[in-house]
């Protein structure tokens, strides 16, 4: 089932342009969004969350355009923006107490389960958390309102290998429940491990958006890992 | 909208915004330019903008399941709530100075502006200017607030000087009416002040929503 469609996104900055970015997200699939620093991953994610004003293109969820259906759609989206911390001096308990009021689907049991799993202490403030724990706090908020699509910007960056594995396992669990998981990363092995689909962006343009198996079949040389393939491809793009 | 206002009050605001409401009580001080009280209340609200910016509040709020324009409206609601609370204190001071303290020698010899309905109307105008110049100005970038606040300071002090000076102009002495003198004229000016506040707030909120839709976060 198609959950989200990103169509022909265009965003022009003085020194960078996101041009004709299109891909779609399916329910029950994990999509890895990969590209080097400055390739346009965060800009694309911001566009998917209506944080930037587009010069062209559209984003729709569940067949409805985001613009005009923002409130309804955002209730079904979980997001996490890496290690950005909100309200650094407020207690986690107080932040959660406000956030959950916005979601009718807030699930206190799920919240408690992930709170324990992530080892987060509600009486702490985001300022007292390590970078990795900040990522977990963002994920906790994203996971606790039973979202049907998760959009995560670098969710595994800054995490230790054990926590990264935990997060990837959670993605796999959510996939079984029919959730569409879309995450950007620099860590190709994370994509290798759990992604069904790959969206590969370079210099603001989509190079590939396809199932991981198809990507490997089309682009990888024999005996080459996904990471080696991408490094080779990125090198090719770099030298163009 | 209740939830976004609650978020503003509990997460985004500075405690100074609440404490500075008490500057509304400056309307009780004799021999003092009492409209400065309205300026200090605005200064308290400014602290919340600073606190909210440090906490990445705008991006956080925009990611919540609300329309972008509701983020702006929530902030306006919070600002107006603080303003109305301080105006209530100012109104209390006006009524008490017009009635209970109307025979007080401390107030009778007041060289500066009296706390009457004209002064209360002028306080409404100052808050209207704050919403129009500062709050709307902030939402042009949702980040920069120095320039709009400096413009607000300059304009506000010009308004305060003008309000303090007007009753010295021959024929306009009634602007500084004491007690219930010239009450009809005072009430007319008060209503005009309220209308100016409402117009400036409503129009600037509409503009701020438009600006906020266009900017990149």
Your description of this structure?
The complex is a heterodimer of chains A (240) and B (217). Chain A is α/β, with parallel strands linked by helices and 240 residues long. Chain A has nine helices and ten strands. Chain A has helices at 41-48, 70-74, 92-99, 108-118, 131-143, 161-176, 188-194, 212-219, 226-239, and strands at 2-13, 16-26, 30-34, 56-61, 64-65, 77-81, 149-153, 180-185, 197-202, 205-211. In chain A, a hairpin with a 2-residue loop joins strand 1 and strand 2. The longest helix of chain A has 16 residues, at 161-176. In chain A, 42% of the residues are buried. The model of chain A has no long low-confidence stretch (mean pLDDT 90). By secondary structure, chain B is mostly helical. Chain B contains nine helices and no strands. In chain B, helix 3 (36-54) packs antiparallel against helix 5, helix 5 packs antiparallel against helix 9 (183-214) and helix 7 (117-138) runs parallel beside helix 9. The relative contact order of chain B is 0.15. Chains A and B meet through helix 2 and helix 3 of A and helix 1 and helix 4 of B.
- What's the multimeric state? heterodimer
Task: Pick out the low-confidence regions of chain A.
Answer: none
Estimated structural class of chain B: mainly alpha
Q: Structural class from helices and strands of chain A?
A: alpha/beta
Instruction: Tell me what portion of residues of chain A adopts beta-strand conformation.
Output: 25-35%
Give the integer mean of the pLDDT values of chain A.
90
The most extensive contact between chains is: A-B, 29 and 25 residues
How large is the count of helical segments of chain A? 9
Q: Give the total of beta strands of chain A.
A: 10
| Sheet with most strands of chain A | 6 strands, mixed
């Amino acid at each position: 089932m198609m959950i989200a469609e990103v169509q022909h996104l265009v965003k022009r900055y003085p020194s960078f342009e996101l041009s004709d970015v299109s891909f779609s997200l399916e329910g029950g699939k994990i999509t890895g969004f990969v590209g080097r620093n400055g390739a346009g991953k965060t800009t694309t994610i911001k566009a998917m969350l209506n944080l930037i004003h587009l010069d062209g293109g559209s984003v729709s969820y569940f067949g409805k355009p985001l613009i005009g259906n923002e409130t309804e759609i955002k209730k079904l989206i979980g997001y996490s923006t890496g290690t950005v911390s909100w309200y650094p001096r407020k207690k986690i308990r107080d932040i959660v107490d406000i956030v959950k009021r916005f979601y009718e689907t807030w699930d206190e049991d799920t919240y408690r389960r992930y709170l324990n799993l992530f080892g987060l202490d509600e009486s702490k403030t985001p300022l007292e958390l390590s970078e990795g724990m900040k990522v977990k706090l963002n994920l906790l908020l994203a996971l606790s309102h039973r979202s049907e699509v998760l959009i995560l910007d670098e969710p595994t960056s800054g995490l230790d290998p054990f926590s990264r594995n935990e997060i990837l396992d959670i993605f796999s669990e959510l996939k079984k429940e029919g959730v569409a998981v879309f995450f950007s990363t620099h860590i190709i092995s994370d994509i290798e491990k759990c992604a069904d689909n790959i969206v590969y962006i370079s210099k603001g343009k989509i190079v590939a958006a396809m199932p991981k198996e198809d990507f490997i079949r089309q682009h990888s040389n024999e005996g080459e890992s996904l990471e080696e393939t991408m490094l080779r491809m990125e090198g090719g793009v770099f030298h163009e | 909208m209740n939830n976004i206002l609650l978020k503003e009050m509990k997460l985004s605001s500075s405690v100074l915004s609440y404490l500075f409401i008490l500057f509304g009580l400056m309307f009780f001080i004799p021999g003092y330019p009492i409209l400065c009280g309205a300026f200090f209340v605005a200064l308290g609200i400014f602290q919340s903008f600073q606190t909210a910016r440090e906490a990445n509040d705008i991006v956080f709020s925009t990611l919540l399941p609300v329309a972008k324009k509701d983020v702006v409206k929530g902030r306006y609601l919070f600002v107006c709530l603080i303003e109305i609370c301080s105006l209530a204190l100012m109104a209390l001071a006006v009524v008490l100075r017009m009635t209970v303290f109307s025979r007080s020698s401390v107030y009778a010899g007041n060289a500066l502006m009296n706390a009457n309905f004209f002064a209360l109307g002028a306080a409404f105008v100052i808050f209207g200017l704050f919403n129009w110049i500062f709050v709307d100005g902030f939402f042009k970038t949702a980040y920069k607030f120095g320039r709009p606040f400096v413009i607000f300071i300059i304009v506000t002090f010009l308004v305060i000087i003008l309000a303090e000076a007007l009753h010295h102009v021959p024929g306009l002495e009634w602007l500084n009416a004491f007690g219930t003198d010239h009450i009809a004229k005072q009430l007319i000016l008060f209503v005009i002040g309220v209308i100016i506040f409402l117009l400036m707030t409503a129009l600037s909120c509409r503009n701020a929503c438009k600006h906020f839709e266009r900017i990149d976060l």
